[in-house]
Amino acid sequence: MSDTTTDRGNGTDRDNRTERHIADRQRQLGARLRRIRHQQGMSLADVQERSGGVWKAVVVGAYERGDRTISVARLQQLAEFYRVPLADLLPPPASQRRTDQPPRYVLDLIALRHATTTDGRELLPVARFAARIRRHRGDHNGRVLTVRASDLEMLAFTTGQDLDTLVQRLRAYGVLRSSA
After folding, report:
1. Any residues with CB less than 8 A from the CB of 143 and at least 6 apart, and which?
2. Cα separation of 35 and 20, whole Å?
3. What is the CB neighbour count within 10 angstroms for residue 22?
4. Helix intervals (H) in the chain
5. Which long-range contacts (CB under 8 A, 24 or more apart) does 164-170 make?
6. Confidence bin at 99 (pLDDT 50/70/90)
7. Residue 102 · residue 150 · CB < 8 Å
8. Alpha carbon distance 134, 110 (integer Å)
9. Are 91 and 32 in contact (CB under 8 A)?
C-alpha cells in the first residue's frame, strides 16, 4: 500500500508542477500578445473596434493576463488579425529561453548619472539611450537597467566604437555592473 500512496503523492506533485507550468506558459503567451498589441499601437478598445467586435477587449485582456486559455484556432485568428505569423505569438520552448539567449548587461543608472555630471561627458549618449529604453519599458526604478548585448552593440556602432571598447569604458566608469 505504501507504493500506491507514494505514487499518488508523486502524481499530485507532478499534477501541481504541470498546472504551474501551464499557467506560466499562459502568462508568457499573454505577455507576447500584449507586446504585439502595444507594438501595433493599439489599446484593448482599439482591438475591439478594429475587429468589428470579433475580439472583445475584456477577452483579449484575459488572454494577455493569462487568466483565460486560448485555443489554437482562436490564436491563429488573432495572429491573422495582428498580421503576424502564429509562431511569433508563441513563447519559446523552455530549453531555448535559457540557453539560446545572448548575454545581458546591467547598467548602474546611479553611477551613469554621476559619471555624466562629472568627468564622463562621453557617456551622455549612453545616458540618453538608457533613458529612452526606460521610457519605452515604463521602467521607473531608476537604479539599474538590464540591456541585451545587441543593444550595446548598436550603441557602440552609433558612437563609433566596437562592443569590447564600449564595455571596457562602461566598466572603467563603474557603470556596467556585470553580465547577467
Report:
1. 108, 109, 110
2. 22
3. 12
4. 2-39, 44-50, 57-65, 72-82, 86-89, 94-99, 109-117, 124-137, 149-158, 163-172
5. 167/105, 169/122, 169/123, 170/107, 170/123, 170/126
6. very low
7. yes
8. 14
9. yes
User: Which neighbouring-strand residues pair with 179?
Assistant: 105
Residue 51: HSE in the Cβ half-sphere, 13 Å Cα cutoff? 22
Amino acid identity at 68: R
Q: How far apart are CA 36 and CA 166, in angstroms?
A: 31
On whether the CB atoms of residues 85 and 79 are closer than 8 A, the answer is: yes
| Pair type for strands 144-148 and 104-108 | antiparallel
Concatenating the DSSP letter of every residue in 142-164 gives -SEEEEEHHHHHHHHHHTT--HH
Domains along the chain with CATH numbers: 14-96 (1.10.260.40), 104-179 (1.10.10.1930)
Mean pLDDT value across residues 49-65:
94
Predicted local distance difference test score (pLDDT) of residue 179? 62
Q: Of 10-19, 43-52, 136-145, give the lowest mean pLDDT range.
A: 10-19
Residue 178: pLDDT band with limits 50, 70, 90: low
Question: In the structure, what pLDDT confidence band is assigned to residue 54 with cuts at 50, 70 and 90?
Answer: very high
